[in-house]
Design a protein that fits this description.
alpha/beta; Rossmann fold; 7 strands
């Protein structure tokens, strides 16, 4: 770094400069996009179809910044920004960080150069009130949400996926009785030690989780449906098919 935070370009390898230049030229022709990703956390869906796998693909394809609200809050607290200081005060008291604060942190983030072509919001909004506050903030900036990608998956498929999962606790290796079974039932392939099923990988636990997810999230999806911006994705499909669906809905 040269003084004042600027980079001395002579010190940057030519290949890196060319790569960045080509990336910027490609990005210049891309349309702006402001997206929200909605879906149960990715461990509930097949590996590679969920938000965690698809968001980097979307981010690179459309030159967007990826905004995960949990990460942004932690970064704001660590950087001791005015909003970060307020958020830390709430956290230290054991309180939830207010919707206004989170929207404020998003507002700050999307003004950065990396968000020039738009953003992917992940993990927010979780309630209709949050969606309304987000819309108010974007309207003040003269923009709006272009598309909400709903990673939809049938509850029955989820139940089969979850209740068939077994793990080897020491290594974290995960198996599935249908999709990725161990060579010997109930035994880890590498160590030969027994596999266990997590206490929360049961039909009862999943049922309560799904009820909470539907209760909290479906009103948000309805809110955006009325605005005509929701795309339903078939998240049970193989990753390439999900990627193709996303590209079609964003074209």
């Amino acid at each position: 770094m040269a003084s004042g935070g600027s980079v001395d370009l002579e010190d940057v390898p030519s290949l890196d400069l060319m790569t960045e230049l080509l990336r910027r030229m490609k990005c210049a022709s891309k349309p702006d996009k402001r997206l929200i990703l909605i879906g149960l956390r990715s461990f509930l869906r097949p590996p590679g179809s969920g938000k965690g796998t698809q968001s980097p693909i979307i981010k690179d394809e459309y030159c967007l910044c990826h905004l995960a609200t949990g990460d942004m809050l932690r970064a704001a607290v660590a950087a001791k920004t005015p909003l970060g200081v307020k958020a830390k005060e709430a956290m230290d008291k054991g309180e939830l960080v207010s919707d206004d604060l989170v929207v404020g942190i998003i507002d700050e983030a999307i003004k950065k150069p990396s968000c020039q072509k738009g953003f992917i919001l992940d993990g927010f909004p979780r309630t209709v009130v949050q969606a309304e506050k987000l819309d108010e903030m974007l309207t003040k900036q003269g923009t709006k949400i272009d598309k909400v990608l709903n990673f939809a998956i049938d509850d029955a498929i989820l139940e089969e996926r979850i209740t068939g999962r077994w793990i080897h606790p020491p290594s974290g290796r995960t198996y599935h009785m249908k999709y990725a079974p161990p060579k010997v039932p109930g035994i880890d392939d590498v160590s030969g030690e027994p596999l266990i099923q997590r206490k929360d990988d049961t039909a009862e636990v999943l049922k309560s989780r799904l009820e909470a997810f539907h209760r909290q999230t479906e009103p948000v999806i309805d809110y955006y449906y009325k605005k005509g911006v929701v795309s339903q994705l078939h998240a049970e499909k193989p990753p390439k098919d999900v990627t193709a669906e996303i590209q079609k809905s964003l074209s």
